[in-house]
Each structure stands twice: as structure tokens, then as C-alpha cells.
Amino acid sequence: MADIQVNKKFGLVTGGACLFIVAYQQLVHHRFWILLFVPGVLLLLVAVLAPKLLNRLRLAWEKTGHILGTINTTVILFLVFFLIITPLGFVMRLMNKTLLITGFKPGLTTYWQPVNKNSRESMKQQF
Questions:
Q1: pLDDT tens digits along 90-127
Q2: 39 pLDDT tier (thresholds 50, 70, 90)
């Protein structure tokens, strides 16, 4: 029973999105996209009349979305790491800056760093 509701929601949302794009194109650009209009109407009709028929299409849609999400995540994380984090690390090394105290420092009595106490006055204009 839950699959029928999920299929119905899938058909209504996807068909509605197709028809929304067709309406936008028609109103703004005066172009009628028959290639989106027909699937949009068919998805809406099938969602209302026989939502069970949308099961395979919905599963294929979800699998495609999962694959694209995995690819996008991998590419985005790769780009962020190699275009932002790696150059930032090189610049920090060139400037001999460290954000963490690592290693043993024999002259230190403690590794705790002092914290500035905030008063009510410092909270009035935070930015």
C-alpha cells in the first residue's frame, strides 16, 4: 500500500514539474515543448488512475538519482580538496604557520590556551 502512495506522489510531482516547465516556456519564451508536455500529462494520468504502473519508472529514477549523487559528491569533494584545501596547506607551510599545537614542547608547563572572557558589552555588536 505504501508503494502505491509513493508511486502516486512520484507521478504527480514529476508530471507537475514537466507541465510547469512547459507552461513557463510557453508564457515566457512562447515555445511549446511537446516532448515535455506529453510525458507530463501521461505521468499525471497514470499517477491518478493506476499508480502501480509507475513502480519500475520510479525505481529507475531513484537509482539514476543515487548514481548521479554519488558521482557529484565524489567530483565536488575532489575539487574542494585539491583546489582549496591543498593550496591552503601549501601556503600555510610556506609561511611556517600551524593552526594546531602538535608535538611535544619541553619548555611548556601546559598546552591550554587562554580564553578571553566575554561580557555583556561585547555581545551587543557582534558583527
A1: 999 999 888 887 778 888 888 887 777 777 776 777 76
A2: very high
Interaxial angle between packed helices 2-24 and 55-80, expressed in degrees from 0 to 180 and rounded to the nearest 10: 70
Spatial contact of 18 and 40, defined as CB atoms under 8 Å apart = yes
Q: What is the DSSP string of the chain?
A: -HHHHHHHHHHHHHHHHHHHHHHHIIIII----HHHHHHHHHHHHHHHH-GGGGHHHHHHHHHHHHHHHHHHHHHHHHHHIIIIIHHHHHHHHHTT--SS--S--TT-S------PPP-HHHHH---
C-alpha cell at 94: 610556506
In whole angstroms, what is the distance from residue 41 CA to residue 13 CA?
12
- Cα–Cα dist 30/27, whole Å: 6
C-alpha cell at 111: 598546552
- CA distances, 18 to each of 12, 32, 52, 78 (Å): 10, 12, 20, 33
Q: Cα(26)–Cα(40) distance, rounded to whole angstroms? A: 15
